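task queued by scheduler; priority normal; single chain, no ligands, no partner chains; default sampling; output format set to structure tokens
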Amino acid sequence: MQNSVLRRVVVHDRFQLELKLGYPLAQGKETRYRIDTYLFAPHSLGVNATSYPQNDFFRDIQHYVRMKTPSFQLREVLDSQRSPLVHAESLLRERGAQLRAGDEDILRDSFRILRAVVKSATQNRLAPLVRAPHEPSAESAGRFGEIVLPTIGDVDEFQTRYRSLISALLDAGASADCMRAYRLTDESISILIEDLLLRIYQLAPTWLPATELAGQQAALADRIRAESDYRTEQGYPSVLTKDTRESYLRRVSALKKFTSSVLWLSTSTRREGTTLEQVLFAIAAGVAMVFATLVAFYAQSIYGQFSLPVFVALVVAYMFKDRIKEQGRTWSSSLLSRHLYDYRTVIETQDGRRQLGNVREKVGYLKAESIPPEVIATRGAGPHDEPTFVGHLETVLMYAKLVTLRKDAFAFLAEDGVEITAINDIMRFDIRPFLRKMDDPYEDRLMLKGDKVRTIRCHRTYHLNLVSVFAGEDGSMTSERTMVVLDRKGIQRIEQFDATGKIAAPGEPRLRLSELVESE
């Protein structure tokens, strides 16, 4: 079965993994997904329930929930009635010199969402460039031109039309806030296009023979300089020089957050089952009190009210009462952990007016015999450290997530022409607790080479294996495995496999698509 949940595991930085899950929305009904992730860690790392309790795990993860960027081809951004650009143009044309109440909110959202839409559309258009030919040729040069020249032409048309909105906004008497949103988006789009052109410039030598390379790169360089000159003319501070390296990076990050925040969703997290937990704890305390009271009544009826045996019986009753209460609390917690989750996160719009769904999470350590057979099979497929795997020399941490999305979620956005088909749940996981007990990353070993003994420096690494199991509403299940290679300095690389052990993402290209433009 093809897995409907879109999953991507990437290295965010040296110490953080980023797990991105995309949940498609089912039309006309409540959408539910369950994803169980089993983390297999070598015993030698010293990660267990005592050294790394559940609360520490939740401390080391960070969540972002956002709407999936609406899907547009680059020409659709220019021509489709669904396009935020076309929608803003039509609105300003209809209103003329007077904006109505609520128009500026629509315009601000349309401006900001354009950056994400253009980024996604250009990525799709330029995707064939990711895998370069073995060597440049006339044929590859033709293919390069067929992709790049129309893309730059469409981008130029988009920027011309977007920048022409300034006069319509001024004529309509747009407020300072609306103009600020327009200008900040304009600056952010300019940086995005400049970075895109720079990446194309870098790719050109792998596609173009020497006879064409110089001319094409000269044209690209002129176009790149035009973006920088435009921002200088507009007074935008995001011009990269040797003196502005720090402020430039901070400005670019702030602009990206400003524009993409239109897709962000608000979340509020709380522990699940706290009321039921307190009720069960109260029942346990009541049972303990009943026991102590019965012992007291029985002792008084036999030995009288004021005697040494009664005193001893009361002390013993109190001791057992305390233990009964604590054992009741333990049983209650175990019962709740089997039927409830640790945390419930409510997903809402940023204004808090619409509740879109919820995400429930729990985490716990498993014994080898409690691990489902399909998870063991996926863990064992493909390359692995055989002694560690066969000898069960691993600690297994299970992180479960149940996602529920309302059937009418995001339908309100369709009124403005923006169709949302999925949400993205982005989780960053800090792996530093797994590095504490690691040995030095390098060790010298002796090797006989010919008739001489040589010293070889070997790289010591450790493997974390993540097996994700996706459960559909029809009871079907699929699983995938990600192997994270670590050393004491952090994450070295990741490798992904399907349930049969085959590499899920074959051969890394020279330049990945994520390197063409910055990660969203």
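post-processing summary
- The chain has three domains: 6-59+363-515, 74-263, 273-339.
- The mean pLDDT is 81.
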